[in-house]
Design a protein that fits this description.
about 475 residues; six-stranded mixed beta sheet; about 25% helix; elongated
Length: about 475
């Protein structure tokens, strides 16, 4: 399934870029709704779902613009057009095989004339559906062909021969399925159905074997009872027990699930009036823990987070991953300098052992960050932030949960405040006054909460989506 998904998706994108370029402005498909039957071995498994959630990253696509949905047909609810199409192809092949028992012509498009392997099936289907009408075949004298006995066309042809209106050498077909004696062979196209709407793929597993390395995943609980899955991030999915294709559900799913909470009910879902529970999406994890790319991916994440951390300066904005059960999937923070760290906002543990920074354990070669936390101003507005009331002082955090940093924020309400840097403040003693005058007016770490109180900041949706897209990767 994985091999053919990548191969077919690439072909479709190339075809659209060639014939429908205006419909694929990004150069690749950004909204994908995949459907298959409920086969647990081939499609509906934890490994298959993890692969689907990781497909965006694997293909190098922008996770903030790509929205993938996977729906499965429920057992006992009939077959879809995909099953019907497969059944049609099977019946065609069976019919061609049966025809070889009463005809010496062999199967069109197959070199041997008979179905012996999967390549023969591919060639037969290509000839009939994808290349239909491009070549001609000849019906030899006395060879059986399609009968039209009892039809108006057959009666007219028979009468014409008896009356002599069809001369010797002209094409005619007799209602018993044979060509009339003395009449030249008739030509016809190979395919009765040259619809040219199908593209077939053939993979030679002997010449190009598909390797299946050992893989392990966090088990996706309840997968057998759920039938609609929305890819939230690599190894993260929102799933629900019943599928719905109403306009409200389709629009919401195609907008993406990056901002969805642990459980999500789509407003206006026409099916949810029957049972709200089975039409509610629930967030689950199916992260790969063993297999190709796991070690490399972890090393890449650590390197990326450390690189982001080393570039931090006091005042820079950051997003951290929220903890399990937190009200927010990602938390906004701002880097604040710390006197003990030589007035820097970050500190690296360069010793050979784990140390405690603040109240956080920092392993060797890991980084700690001094963070002033912010929170959403209102729950229904995911882009406006204010300073966190519950945490008035900066808190030291490990960079393990760092998602995104260095992005801009726009202040929409409040007065401008200088970024706290905790500079050493020297006093200038004046002969005329008995109190000290500070040499630096820079806001200190302890006064930052008071200075920021009442200020409102807004973030661009694109920057928040970048952080949300990485939630499943940390």
């Amino acid at each position: 399934m994985q091999h053919y998904t990548e191969e077919e998706l690439q072909w479709v994108e190339e075809y659209m870029n060639t014939h429908f370029k205006n419909d694929i402005p990004q150069g690749y498909i950004t909204h994908l709704h995949q459907h298959s039957d409920n086969a647990a071995t081939h499609f509906k498994s934890t490994g298959a779902i993890e692969y689907f959630t990781s497909l965006i990253k694997k293909l190098g696509r922008d996770a903030t613009k790509c929205h993938y949905v996977y729906s499965f047909g429920a057992p006992g609810h009939g077959k879809g057009e995909f099953d019907g199409l497969g059944g049609t192809f099977k019946n065609v092949i069976h019919g061609l095989i049966r025809a070889t028992k009463t005809s010496q012509r062999g199967i069109p498009g197959v070199e041997s004339g008979y179905i012996q392997n999967v390549e023969d099936v591919y060639n037969a289907l290509m000839t009939r559906f994808a290349e239909g009408g491009t070549e001609e075949e000849t019906i030899e004298e006395g060879e059986a062909t399609t009968t039209n006995e009892g039809t108006e066309e057959g009666i007219q042809e028979e009468a014409a021969i008896e009356e002599g209106s069809i001369e010797e050498g002209e094409e005619a077909i007799i209602n018993d399925g044979t060509i009339a004696e003395g009449i030249l062979p008739r030509t016809r196209t190979k395919a009765k159905n040259p619809i040219n709407k199908y593209h077939f793929f053939h993979h030679d597993t002997i010449a190009r074997p598909i390797h299946r390395p050992e893989e392990k995943f966090i088990k996706l609980d309840g997968i057998s009872k759920n039938y609609q899955f929305v890819a939230t991030g690599a190894g993260l999915v929102h799933m629900r027990q019943r599928s719905c294709w109403c306009m409200n559900c389709m629009c919401m799913m195609m907008e993406g699930s990056l901002n969805w909470p642990e459980s999500k009910t789509i407003s206006g879902c026409t099916s949810s009036t029957l049972s709200a529970t089975v039409y509610q999406f629930v967030k689950k994890s199916c992260v790969k823990t063993l297999g190709t790319g796991v070690t490399t991916t972890r090393a890449d994440r650590v390197h990326e987070k450390n690189e982001m951390t080393t570039l931090l300066r006091p005042g820079d904005w950051m997003f951290f991953k929220g903890g399990e059960g937190d009200s927010q999937l990602v938390w906004l923070g701002r880097a604040v300098s710390k006197t003990e760290w030589s007035n820097q906002c970050i500190w690296k543990n360069e010793t050979g052992r784990d140390l405690i920074a603040g109240h956080v354990r920092v392993a060797r070669n890991e980084y700690a960050i001094n963070v002033q936390w912010y929170t959403l101003k209102q729950a229904d507005n995911p882009l406006e932030y204010v300073i966190e009331k519950a945490e008035p002082d900066p808190i030291v955090n490990n960079n393990k949960e760092l998602l995104h940093a260095g992005f801009p924020m726009t202040q929409v309400i409040g007065s401008r405040s200088r970024v706290p840097r905790r500079r050493n403040v020297r006093s200038i003693q004046s002969d005329d006054y008995e109190y000290d005058t500070p040499a630096s007016l820079q806001t200190s770490e302890g006064h930052w909460f008071r200075k920021e109180w009442g200020n409102v900041w807004t973030i661009a949706q694109e920057d928040k989506d970048i952080a949300l897209a990485k939630v499943g990767l940390v």
